[in-house]
Amino acid sequence: MASPRDKAARAALMSSADDIEAQFYEALQQADLSKLMALWSQDEDIVCVHPGSTRAVGPAEIRASFEAIFAAGPVLLQPTSVRRLDNAELALHSVLERIDVPTDDGPRTAWVVATNVYRRTTFGWRMIAHHASPAGLDDGAVHEDASATLH
């Protein structure tokens, strides 16, 4: 059972959407499923879409999707550019993610564009949606500050 001090420390770590986001990327880099799932709201309508995958809805489906990803080990991912739209109750972050991908031809860099949505709850900030789409391999076509409208 967690001590009051542990609970207070955990609550302090969830005091902002930025705190949750930093912990989310740390959990991915460490393949730490327990840590990652502690960041999500427990509502049944939370949503996660991994690049090229179907939509996972609810904590059980999201957990299963990350278990499958972590079966291959940690995700070598760095958030490189974040655009924020935050208010007192809801935060939406558009993140450019750099992922180092081992290939037969040596390591390559893949880029993913992710949207992370956080909601303030009585338990602190929690993730309610993560939607990631492939942005391509590092061939000079992807830039952190690209501003082209795609649709």
Which H/E pattern describes the elements? Answer: HHHEEHEEEE
Q: Largest beta sheet, briefly?
A: 6 strands, mixed
**How many H/I helical runs?**
4
* Radius of gyration, in angstroms, nearest whole number: 16 Å
Spatial ordering of strands, largest sheet: 2-1-6-5-4-3
Q: Which spans of ≥5 residues are poorly predicted at pLDDT below 50?
A: 139-151
Q: Residue share in helices?
A: 25-40%
Q: Which secondary-structure class do the elements indicate? A: alpha+beta
Number of strands: 6
Strand content: 35-45%
Question: Termini distance?
Answer: 49 Å
Describe the structure.
- It is a single chain.
- The chain is built from 4 helices and 6 strands, in the order H-H-H-E-E-H-E-E-E-E.
- The chain is an alpha+beta fold and 151 residues long.
- Strands 2-1-6-5-4-3 form a 6-stranded mixed sheet.
- Helices cover 28% and strands 40% of the residues.
- It starts with a helix and ends in a 14-residue tail after the last strand.
- The longest helix has 14 residues, at 17-30.
- It has helices at 4-13, 17-30, 33-38, 58-70, and strands spanning 47-49, 55-57, 77-86, 90-103, 106-121, 124-137.
Keywords, separated by commas or semicolons:
151 residues, alpha+beta, six-stranded mixed sheet, 40% strand
How would you summarize the topology of this molecule?
Elements: H1 4-13, H2 17-30, H3 33-38, E1 47-49, E2 55-57, H4 58-70, E3 77-86, E4 90-103, E5 106-121, E6 124-137
Parallel strand pairs: 1-6
Antiparallel strand pairs: 1-2, 3-4, 4-5, 5-6
